[in-house]
Write a structure and sequence with these properties.
It contains 12 helices and 24 strands. By secondary structure, it is an alpha/beta fold. The chain starts with a strand and ends with a strand. The chain binds MU-OXO-diiron. The site of MU-OXO-diiron (FEO) has 9 residues, from helix 2.
């Protein structure tokens, strides 16, 4: 059953109440989700996106109850990922000549996933328009890297609707469809969880894109994302939240402690740090998680908000526990707002874990303080005595106190034309084993964009 959004625009998506994992098993889903597809019936009829492959039969059957598929004049594919394109092959078997409007990158994505089917693609870029009759038109806005290179939004003039694709979405099944009808606490949590975990690697693109959209001077009464509720009550709130969450200085008065333990020594340090935070600053919230037991996406939602984090692991066969290793590996993929960080842990033989955590957190761009708690076998009085200084520095706003000030040499920068990621000679690319100071011409042939994997010839120098 379609649901009216506004005017002649309806929601025709799939409410995925049972979904528990997304992106394979990478993202935990606690509140269900939806794959939002929209149907616009003006002089021209437009279908925006489809739904995930497992729901294609349900989707097509329901769509056929609403409209003769042959009356669809245009299909707009704002994004090629399978949760939105999964039904497209079946749909195109029924209406094979229907024009598909999407970005050039989306054509690559769709053909890469489903093969070259000879579909009638119409490639669009930012500012291109499509007349749909009744005095209305669509305006296309590329949303590169929010969150894929092919992502796009579409604006419907007259209705003042922005169909925003994944941006501004949430994994939240809400039968009532609109933000003002949703559970507000759940909506806020799911919107931030989605932002931190899915858009987190790409937040540098968020604020410029929102400024660009605002600069287009388009009145926006509805923001219709690809997942979760439609924003119609105070649509500016989600734009403002995105700008706040993407701000490199975003932080709340929260410290998150993340650890795993073998024989409870590292756990004792974690608990002692939590207690000391409360002693020094009773108004500061403290969240403490064993990363082997708590969902990583929920932890990372708190990490995103935190003004500081402390990460602990015992040393086990010369490194950190695998749970902490996986957690840090995920953390490194994100473009976290500025925050302080500390490391702690126990050891019995060699004791590498604290150093490994500190290095990884530094590589992730966090301000790692010098204080640490590195306990031989089990924390004793001397170890616990180090915690007040560690907490004092974690809670301090002074960014310079204990940071290692590194002077990076000047160097050239090269930007990926596909996604905007920048290679800086001064920093190199440790993820690909490229040392700081490596000149562009000395990069190996295997070098690729760290974000979208585009090859070297897709880069140009930043002047
Ligand atoms: Fe909801 Fe990027 O797919």
């Amino acid at each position: 059953m379609k649901k009216k959004v506004t005017g002649n625009l309806s929601w025709v998506g799939y409410l995925d109440w049972e979904l528990q994992k997304f992106h394979g098993d990478e993202f935990s889903v606690d509140s269900g989700s939806s794959q939002n597809s929209y149907l616009l019936e003006e002089e021209k009829t437009v279908l925006f996106d489809t739904v995930w492959t497992p729901h294609r039969d349900w989707f097509l059957q329901n769509l056929k109850k609403e409209i003769d598929l042959n009356k669809i004049d245009y299909i707009v594919m704002n994004h090629g990922e399978q949760d939105h394109s999964g039904t497209l092959p079946s749909l195109m078997e029924e209406i094979p000549d229907t024009p598909i409007y999407c970005t050039a990158q989306c054509v690559k994505s769709l053909e890469g996933q489903y093969g070259k089917k000879g579909w009638n693609f119409h490639v669009v870029k930012t500012g291109d328009t499509l007349d749909i009759g009744n005095g209305k038109k669509l305006t296309f806005i590329e949303m590169k890297m929010l969150h894929w290179p092919d992502s796009m939004a579409t604006y419907i003039s007259g209705d003042n609707v922005l169909i925003s694709m994944d941006a501004f979405g949430q994994h939240y099944a809400c039968e009532e469809l609109f933000n003002d009808r949703a559970d507000q606490d759940k909506l806020y949590f799911e919107a931030l969880k989605y932002f931190a975990n899915i858009l987190g690697p790409f937040t540098r693109f968020v604020t410029p894109k929102i400024e660009e959209i605002k600069g287009m001077g388009l009145p926006i009464d509805y923001i219709c994302p690809a997942h979760g509720v439609i924003w119609r009550d105070n649509t500016a709130q989600i734009l403002d939240l995105y700008e706040k969450w993407a701000d490199p200085d975003y932080k709340e008065d929260l410290v998150t402690i993340c650890y795993d333990t073998m024989w409870d020594g590292t756990k004792k340090i974690a608990h002692a740090i939590a207690k000391e935070i409360y002693r020094q600053s009773p108004t500061t919230k403290v969240h403490l998680y064993n990363v082997a037991k708590k969902d990583k996406n929920d932890i990372m939602t708190d990490v995103w908000k935190s003004k500081a984090i402390a990460v602990g692991s015992p040393t086990c066969v010369n490194t950190v526990l695998t749970s902490v290793d996986a957690f840090l590996s995920f953390l490194k993929t994100l473009h976290l707002p500025h925050k302080k960080a500390a490391a702690f842990g126990c050891y019995g033989w060699s004791g590498e874990s604290v150093g490994i955590i500190q290095k990884t957190l530094k590589d992730a761009g966090l301000d790692v303080i010098n204080e640490e708690v590195k306990s031989y076998w089990n924390p004793d009085e001397d170890d616990f005595a180090k915690i007040p200084a560690l907490v004092k520095d974690l809670l301090s706003d002074d960014k310079e106190d204990d940071m290692e000030v590194t002077q990076t040499p000047e160097g050239r920068k090269f930007v990926c034309k596909i996604c905007g990621w920048v290679y800086e000679e001064a920093k190199g690319c440790p993820e690909q084993g490229i040392a700081p100071g490596t000149k562009w011409e000395d990069l190996p042939d295997t070098f690729h964009c760290q974000l979208c994997h585009a090859p070297k010839d897709q880069f140009e120098e930043v002047k």
